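Per reviewer request, we include the raw input and output of the structure prediction for the construct analysed in the revised manuscript.
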Amino acid sequence: MSDIPSSIYTPADNQYALVLGASSGFGGACALALAKDGMNIFGVHLDRAATIPNAEKIRQEIESLGRRTIFWNVNAADPAVRGTIIEDIKKEFASQKGTTTIRVLLHSLAFGTLKPFISENQAEELNQKQMEMTLDVMANSLVYWSQDIINNKLMLPGGRIYAMTSQGGQKVLPAYGAVSAAKAALESHIRQIAFESGKFGITANAVRAGVTDTPAFRKIPNTEILINNALRRNPFSRLTTPEDVAKALVNLCKPEMYWVNGNVLGVDGGEGAVDF
C-alpha cells in the first residue's frame, strides 16, 4: 500500500460495515458480500413479522462466516434510535482489542410514499407529511448518520460512505415524485458529504443501480413495463441483480480506490447509457 497516502488510509484490526437497510435487496446482498470480504457487520433494518425471517437468514449467513454481527430491527430514521445504535457501536468497539473502525457506511433505505402530486381525486394526492417522511428516510437520514459516525470518530481515515440511488432520481414515473425527489436529494447530499469529509480522509459516493427486481422495486406501479424497458435497453439483455451491485461495492471499498469521491457510479451493465 505504499502508493496510498497515509493520511487517506488508516489500517484497523477490526473493520466493520454499517448497512442501513440490511435485511433484503441491495442492503442484504452488500452486507453478505462485505462479510465474505472480511468485514464485521452492523445491520439496521425495519421488518414486520412476515419479513423478519429473511433478515434472520442474512444475519445467520454472516455469522456462519465467522464475522461479528449485530442487527437492529428499528426505524433508522428515528433520531433517538440512531443515538442508541451509536452508543451500542461504541460499546462494541470498546470490547475489542486493537484499532476498530466503521470502514463502510452503506445507506440503502427504501421506504417512501408512492402517490401522485396532483390527481383528480385529491384524497389520492401526496400530502406534506408523506413528502417529508419520504425525503427524511430516503435522503436526509444519510446526513445525520454520517454526522454522528464522523463526529464520534467511529470512522477513521480511509472510510467509505455509499448511498444507493437509481435512475428514478432523473426520471418521471407515475406516483414516483416523492421518491424521485429523495433520490435527487440523496445524490446532492453525497456530493456535499464528499466535499466536507475529505479533510477526515473519508470519501462518499452514490451507487446508481440499474433496474433490479427487489421487494422495494415491486412496490412501484407498472413494474412490468419498467422491467421490459430495462431488458430492451440493457446491453446484456438482463436486469441488474443485488449481487452485481454487491460485487462492485466490495471492489470500490478496496484501499486502492481511495481517489474515487463525490460521484454517482453506475452499476447497471450500461443500461443508463441507452436512451431509446
